[in-house]
Amino acid sequence: MAVIAHRGYHRREPENSLAAFAEATAMGSDGIEVDVRLAGDGTLVCFHDWYLKRLTGASGRVGKIGIERLLETPLLHPQSRRRRPLATLPEVLSLVLDRAHIVLDLKKESVRPSTLEGNTVRLLREFGLLETVTVSSFNPWVLRRIKQLAPEFTTALIASSRLSVRLFNPDYCDGIHVQYPLLERRWFWRVAGNFRRIMVWTPDRRSDLTFPLADNIGGIITNRPDRWGATGSALRRITLRGAEHRG
Is 122 helix (H, G, I), strand (E, B) or coil? Predict the structure, then answer.
């Protein structure tokens, strides 16, 4: 079972900052989850929201602003008040390389063509990170385009509802990342066998996973990797209970 740090370890550092990713890898997390968007000039930046406001206090839409201005707008942690520069995807890949698994959450709210997928594929090939990267998205059209450009990369659909689970297509989705409350739904267990690999997001307390897990669940994506440990030993005990449940 892998423990993936959701947006890095951001209890003290701003989410998706290089500092948050460095803390996650330093504590021994098995991997990091990174939100990726296109800046206005096509640069791949690590930022969750459409707009700057929540994470920086500034105004403006990320996809309409060039990288020079974005780099002048620091990320701000809401509690510690620490300020860090916005990170680009090349910087994150250079920081982590193959020392941990990298889950990329490609943020694209439109089905219209863009350079997001092509730029991502080119960058990952430049870094040679085929074996240690999963490309994920809520947007199935993004994953279809990734598979068209680079069938060798592992892809995963992110799902938070029954409708989004139904968007899974094995032609361009190698796995699925499900929000943890879905594991309490009977209908999910009826379809769970259709997925070769499942990741669960974002259980932050052990009590979030009091229900059984299936054998094809490979790990969790959590805001609190410090509570689970690098090896996910607590999850293995839950998996044993899951085997009894399925029997």
Answer: helix
- 201 within 8 A of 6, measured Cβ to Cβ: yes
* Cα 150 to Cα 135: distance, rounded to the nearest angstrom: 11
Q: What is the CATH number of domain 2-246?
A: 3.20.20.190
Q: Tell me the CA distances in angstroms from 203 to 64, 91, 125, 142, 242, one per residue in order.
A: 33, 28, 31, 25, 17
pLDDT band per the 50, 70, 90 thresholds, residue 113? confident
The sign of the dihedral angle between the CA atoms of 9, 13, 16, 18 is negative
Q: How far apart are CA 97 and CA 91, in angstroms?
A: 10
- Looking at residue 14, what is its pLDDT? 98
Residue 233 confidence (pLDDT) above 80: no
Domain boundaries, the chain: 2-246
CA atoms within 13 A on the CB side of 46: 29
Would you say how long the chain is, in residues? 247
159 within 8 A of 176, measured Cβ to Cβ:
yes
Q: Supply the pTM of this predicted model.
A: 0.92
